[in-house]
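seq/struct pair 1
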Amino acid sequence: MSLTNYRLAAATLALATALVGVAGAGTAMASTAAAVAPGNETAAALIPVDFVNLSARALPASGESHTFVVSYRNDSSVDQVVAPQILVESPDAGPFLAPADIQVERRNADGSREAVPVASQTGTLFTDLVSAQRTLRPGETLTERYRVSAITPGAVGTVQPRVALYG
């Protein structure tokens, strides 16, 4: 890739990241942008174009947990790339949450639980979009069960499950 093409790809990615951030994607782009390498146009095409927000709940008290079901049905006639995501937003006035303050787990098909890594940006904790991507065929439904637990006493926040939609 020539230097000019590299700069053009980088500028396009920066513009797309800025536009999606302004449109409300916020911290989700932090996990998406890291996966887009120069010269990888396929990955660049998989930037979320929309989010479906599901019912939010307060972060549980320390030592407690809440279970969230993230569900989305592809009602279109074409394949749809989607990614479930859990956001945990800190109070506007702080204190800001750190990844060590919570634990996020996903229930597997066999009933076991798998820890889901959490990253942080600007006071919001989030799960990775890139590793969660999957393609739903027409009529298929995504259903993921997550458990969010507060680890740190006094941790306060709002848990916002959502589904990223890709164009």
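seq/struct pair 2
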Amino acid sequence: MHRYRYRCTVCRTTSPVVHQLDSLEAEGTAHRQAVHGGHIPDDELIGEIDRLGRWYAALSPLAALHARIADGLSDLRNEKAMGHYWWASAGAALLIGGTAALILLLVAAAL
């Protein structure tokens, strides 16, 4: 399940979490019309967030990979909730670590 937010850095306001791109567009449009007279504020953020409320675009590649895996595992239990289950975060870390170890073993065996 994807989660999205709209953030206006001029007003320093953030929309509630929405699950549809249409709802996200409606949030941004309503804010621009009501507060900014239809103008687009500088540095506004519109994008996908993880279950902890962090913007995927602001995360490092490894942290974004961990967040996506943990989000996917957490969504198996409850799609609409926020926050990671401890087992989902641990599972994501084990999966990434195990994959890295397997790649190192394959490279070492090839040499």
